[in-house]
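Run log // design_07
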């Protein structure tokens, strides 16, 4: 993998995360939603916890924790870049970008902005999330898949 992609890919994902959050904050009043259909809505809510709004009001703890995870990922990517497959590298860069995107929110807004709401009608709804959350989930899923099915030692 080209060295500049280690910086460019996470930067693109973080930019996409914050552009979408900016558009939501500017166009949807806090606590409101725009229903697209029975399955998808755009909302404007905040989350001081982690996934699925668990452990609310622990922002300082999560700032420290996410910062440590980001530092670990950067160190891990640097030290193991020759042993990781391309899929593993991309997966870790997605996780890194998601962590940075939400860390920026925690530092400058005091909470993470969530805006994607999916589910079925008003009965079954998934907790709201954002682009950074999606990056982390997709990255973790791809990394697990790479370990289970494609874990060949390949130079990146």
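design_07 sequence
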């Amino acid at each position: 993998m080209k060295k500049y992609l280690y910086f460019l890919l996470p930067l693109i994902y973080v930019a996409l995360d914050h552009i979408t959050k900016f558009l939501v904050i500017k166009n949807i009043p806090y606590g409101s939603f725009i229903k697209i259909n029975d399955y998808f809505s755009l909302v404007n809510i905040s989350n001081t916890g982690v996934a699925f709004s668990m452990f609310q009001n622990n922002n300082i703890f999560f700032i420290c924790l996410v910062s440590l995870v980001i530092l670990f990922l950067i160190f891990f990517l640097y030290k193991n870049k020759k042993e990781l497959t391309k899929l593993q590298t991309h997966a870790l860069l997605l996780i890194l970008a998601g962590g940075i995107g939400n860390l920026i929110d925690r530092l400058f807004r005091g909470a993470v902005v969530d805006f994607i709401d999916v589910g079925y009608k008003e009965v079954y709804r998934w907790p709201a999330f954002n682009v950074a959350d999606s990056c982390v989930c997709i990255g973790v899923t791809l990394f697990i898949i790479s370990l289970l099915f494609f874990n060949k030692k390949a130079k990146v």
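The chain has four helices and four strands.
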